[in-house]
Amino acid sequence: MNTKPLLRALLLLLTALLCGTAARAQSCSVSATALAFGNYTSPGGARADSSAAVLVTCTPQYLLLACKSSYTLSLSVGDHASGAQRQLAAGAGRLAYGLFSDSLRQQPWGDGGASGPTTGGTITTSLLNLVCLPGSKSHTVYGRLPANQSVPAGSYSDSVVLTVTY
User: Fold this and answer.
1) How far are the Cα atoms of 18, 26, 51, 78, 163 from residue 74, in angstroms, in the given order?
2) In this structure, what is the dihedral angle of CA atoms 39, 161, 143, 114, given to the nearest 10 degrees?
3) Which CA distances in Å does 52 have to 11, 77, 93, 134, 141?
4) Are 154 and 94 in contact (CB under 8 A)?
5) How many independent structural domains does the chain possess?
6) What pLDDT digit, counting tens, does each position of 18-47 carry?
7) Element (H, E) at 120
8) Using an 8 Å Cβ cutoff, are 104 and 157 in contact?
9) Most CB within 10 Å of its CB: which of 31, 36, 121, 129?
10) Which residues constitute the domain of residue 143?
11) How confident is the model over 143-162, as pLDDT tens digits?
């Protein structure tokens, strides 16, 4: 019996598995809840803190029998920023605020430029029939309105773009 064709077929299958020929394209999505500070008393209002939940969901790329996705999350400066300073707006009124990646509100969360560094993570999932299962990871955006801002009454808002890069 000639075993060379069988051995060759087995080697081709093993090579395909180890080289990731059966690889799947990686994909990620991100969603977030709204961040709302509530009422602010002006002039001389107290500092106000708030937070919002961010959920990253990825289907990792299959490579060498592993399912792993690394990503970064960036936050734009918003629609009403003055340089790198984010601002809520109501007509001509501006209310400064910051977005942070830590609960102590010491690490600004930005776009990797003047508004601050990005944040990121890694999602590792299981493999089922040579297909990576989707996985998710939670993050929190921490917001702060500094105290003692003097602004006219109004309904203040801003729009910040959250981008996932993978």
Assistant:
1) 34, 19, 16, 12, 5
2) -130
3) 51, 16, 24, 23, 5
4) no
5) 1
6) 333 344 458 999 999 999 999 999 888 899
7) strand 119-124
8) no
9) 121
10) 4-165
11) 999 999 999 999 999 999 99
